[in-house]
């Protein structure tokens, strides 16, 4: 009988797969408390490295054409489809649900990438405007990316909540530092393997695994993070992050609904450009 | 050539200022619970205009209760089209009483009558007229299929555009079906109190608009009131951050319009005379008491000397003095405290080695005045290049390449406004894309319109005001 090759679950920062600089890991178990894996337990330094990588990737990603971003998001769906089986296994194992239910979650997650892929080059049309100024001026309003977004996806979902948080952020031209669900982190790392092979530039999405309550305050206080999706934070952590986030007026949002353009627009800024009309 | 103008003062006979004002709660002027009052003065003469009731927490509570009751019983139940008609009425009455508003605003604020008459008041009325038409079209506002008001909105406004900021706040809130408790600035409450009278004349149901006068503590009581659903604030970034902390974990949403340090970028191909006019209106409009002022002038090095020479010549023509005089360009600084702040930051410019220049001008003896001032030889590290002065003081820096201009322009925690001056269309669009600011004026500056969103990136605030985007911030489902 052949002994199978297990995967080492590492972080995903700047397109590379480092272990935590702290050397720490934490134990992840299945629904029946059996040992499954020792993913990295990211440190403050890892989070800061991830923010640096995200900031570095922002210019290229936000400056890429919307069509280009759209194709890359679609490519992510393609890469996930090919790994569908691995996602199903991880979800079924950790969440303790049937393979059929797990498959449903995977399909929805892949379809979410396709949905947001289509939004990349439509959001400006739908949410932007030209404004009827009463005077000899022309002006228009366009949404653009807010910058580096810290993401705490829903804790109870291995993959779907994760994708529903990341896809709108990167579709809008932002870069992201994601802290995966503490209990269900495996899909996040497998997702990063799909991202790494999908033409998504390194640093656009960075994924950390670890202890949410340890990492959240550092994300809230980091002055180079522009916004936070706080969906997966407890009430207490949400409040703490909002208080420290006020130091640079981070845009902090929590979402109950998924797959609406509002999830993209929450992490976009409206810019209005004026010019006189005349001969 | 010098131009001499005979004085052309606007008459103050049109305004009727009471010796004392109460709070406007539930459709009536009522006395505050305590006996404390504060004076509002004319900053151009230092004469007391009126004694204003001071609202403490219990008064704020009374106003919130009135607003909640009006929301539940009347305003949220009214057919949207009827709601809109009240806003149309308000717009019309403001137009009818426009001169009265303009004179009163000039007296209470110190800004030139030319500006209150031609900009503040007409724009405020236009804001109500614009939003009136939205009231029955909210499902097209981009806030989803089921747009709903937040409920009771607490609104806190600054002293630089007292009536206009009131309009920016109250008009969209009412159009979307919210009721409001508004706190005007401590130094400029009079036009808000005249607006209360407009609400009465319009027959606006009692409690839909409530106005509480006071200071920072009054504002804080409003922000922290448990029955407020949303905060809308315009003011300093420091206070804005305090509000963000205060509402953390409460579920209240907020729109914040905060400070700025706007870069005004002049490329070497810009039409220089037109540019000089734009620079002047960018920094000296409203005495520079403008959050989106073009207070950092970034000039391409090869046209610096020529531009500064023309700019100085133009600034020498600015008429500083009696705000009620129709010829006046630059009025009084709004308060002694603001004047002290302008002096303090400006003197850091001298200390840090920048070169100060002001035209020769005689300032009135009474009142608060500061001459139009430019600093050349400013570096990015200087306080006058980093901090918002909120006065008629321009900091001039230079650049060589377009990328350097963008890098310098974006080198600030603020992100409210920026200006670009060039004849080259592709360069305008390139620069506009690179600049991290919510409003970009190309070959113009300091233009505003009710149909156009306004608001900042980064530490200049949260959300937009004006246009469809500003409207959506007053709707659940459109909240961000």
From TrEMBL, chain A:
It comes from freshwater metagenome. This is Unannotated protein. Gene3D superfamilies: Aldehyde Dehydrogenase, Chain A, domain 1. GO terms for molecular function: oxidoreductase activity. The lineage of its organism: unclassified sequences, metagenomes, ecological metagenomes. Transmembrane segments: none annotated. Residues 21-252 form the Aldehyde dehydrogenase domain.
TrEMBL record, chain B:
It holds the Pfam family Aldedh. InterPro entries: Ald_DH/histidinol_DH, Ald_DH_C, Ald_DH_N, Aldehyde_DH_dom. Keywords: Oxidoreductase. GO terms for molecular function: oxidoreductase activity, acting on the aldehyde or oxo group of donors, NAD or NADP as acceptor. Residues 30-475 form the Aldehyde dehydrogenase domain. Belongs to the aldehyde dehydrogenase family. This is Unannotated protein.
């Amino acid at each position: 009988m052949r002994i199978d090759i297990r995967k080492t679950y590492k972080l995903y920062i700047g397109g590379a797969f480092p272990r935590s600089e702290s050397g720490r890991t934490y134990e992840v178990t299945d629904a029946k408390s059996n040992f499954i894996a020792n993913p990295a337990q990211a440190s403050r330094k890892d989070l800061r490295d991830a923010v640096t990588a995200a900031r570095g990737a922002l210019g290229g990603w936000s400056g890429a054409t919307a069509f280009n971003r759209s194709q890359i998001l679609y490519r992510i769906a393609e890469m996930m489809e090919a790994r569908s089986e691995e996602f199903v296994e991880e979800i079924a194992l950790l969440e303790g649900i049937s393979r059929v239910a797990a498959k449903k979650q995977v399909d929805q997650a892949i379809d979410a990438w396709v949905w947001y892929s289509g939004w990349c080059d439509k959001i400006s049309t739908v949410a932007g405007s030209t404004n009827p100024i009463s005077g000899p001026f022309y002006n228009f309003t366009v949404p653009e990316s807010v910058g580096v977004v810290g993401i705490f996806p829903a804790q109870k979902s291995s993959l779907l909540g994760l994708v529903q948080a990341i896809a709108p952020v990167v579709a809008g031209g932002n870069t992201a530092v994601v802290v995966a669900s503490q209990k269900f982190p495996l899909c996040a790392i497998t997702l990063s393997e799909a991202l790494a092979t999908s033409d998504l530039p390194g640093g656009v999405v960075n994924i950390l695994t670890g202890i949410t309550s340890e990492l959240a305050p550092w994300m809230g206080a980091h002055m180079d993070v522009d916004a936070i999706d706080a969906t997966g934070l407890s009430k207490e952590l949400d409040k703490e992050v909002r208080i420290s986030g006020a130091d640079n007026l981070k845009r902090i949002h929590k979402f109950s609904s998924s797959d609406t353009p509002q999830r993209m627009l929450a992490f976009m800024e409206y810019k209005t450009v004026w010019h006189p009309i005349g001969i | 050539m010098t131009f001499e103008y005979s004085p052309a003062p606007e008459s103050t006979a049109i305004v009727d200022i009471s010796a004392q004002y109460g709070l406007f709660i539930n459709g009536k002027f009522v006395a505050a619970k305590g006996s404390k009052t504060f004076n509002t003065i004319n900053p151009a003469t230092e004469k007391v205009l009126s004694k204003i009731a001071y609202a403490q927490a219990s008064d704020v509570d009374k106003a919130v209760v009135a607003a909640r009751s009006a929301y539940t019983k009347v305003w949220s139940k009214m057919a949207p089209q009827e709601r809109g008609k009240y806003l149309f009425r308000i717009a019309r009455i403001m137009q009818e009483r426009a001169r009265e508003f303009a004179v009163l605003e000039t007296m209470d604020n110190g800004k030139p009558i030319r500006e209150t008459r031609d900009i503040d008041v007409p724009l405020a009325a236009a804001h109500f007229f614009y939003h009136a038409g939205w009231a029955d079209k909210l499902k097209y506002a981009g806030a989803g299929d089921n747009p709903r008001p937040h409920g009771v909105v607490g609104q806190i406004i600054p002293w630089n555009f007292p009536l206009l900021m009131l309009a920016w706040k109250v008009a969209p809130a009412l159009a979307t079906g919210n009721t409001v408790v508004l706190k005007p600035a401590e130094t400029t409450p009079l036009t808000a109190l005249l607006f209360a009278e407009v609400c009465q004349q319009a027959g606006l149901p009692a409690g839909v608009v409530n106005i509480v006068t006071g200071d920072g503590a009054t504002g804080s009581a409003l922000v922290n009131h448990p029955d407020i659903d949303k905060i809308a604030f315009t003011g300093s970034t420091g206070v804005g951050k305090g509000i963000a902390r205060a509402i953390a974990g409460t579920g209240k949403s907020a729109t914040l319009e905060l400070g700025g340090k706007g870069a005004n970028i002049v490329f070497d191909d810009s039409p220089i005379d037109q540019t000089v006019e734009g620079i002047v209106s960018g920094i000296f409009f409203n005495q520079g008491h403008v959050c989106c002022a073009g207070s950092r002038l970034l000039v391409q090095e090869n046209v610096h000397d020529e531009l500064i020479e023309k700019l100085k010549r133009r600034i020498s023509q600015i008429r500083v003095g009696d705000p009620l005089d129709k010829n006046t360009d630059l009025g009084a600084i709004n308060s002694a405290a603001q004047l002290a702040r302008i002096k303090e930051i400006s003197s850091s410019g001298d200390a840090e080695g920048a070169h100060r220049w002001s035209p020769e001008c005689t300032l009135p003896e009474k009142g608060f005045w500061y001459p139009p001032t430019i600093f050349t030889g400013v570096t990015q590290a200087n306080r006058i290049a980093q901090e918002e002065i909120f006065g008629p003081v321009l900091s001039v820096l230079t650049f060589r390449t377009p990328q350097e201009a963008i890098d310098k322009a974006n080198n600030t925690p603020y992100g409210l406004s920026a200006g670009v001056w060039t004849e080259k269309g592709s360069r305008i669009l390139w620069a506009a894309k690179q600049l991290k600011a919510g409003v970009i004026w190309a070959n113009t500056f300091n233009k505003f319109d009710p149909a156009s969103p306004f608001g900042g990136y980064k530490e200049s605030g949260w959300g937009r005001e004006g246009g469809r985007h500003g409207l959506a911030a007053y709707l659940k489902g459109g909240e961000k």
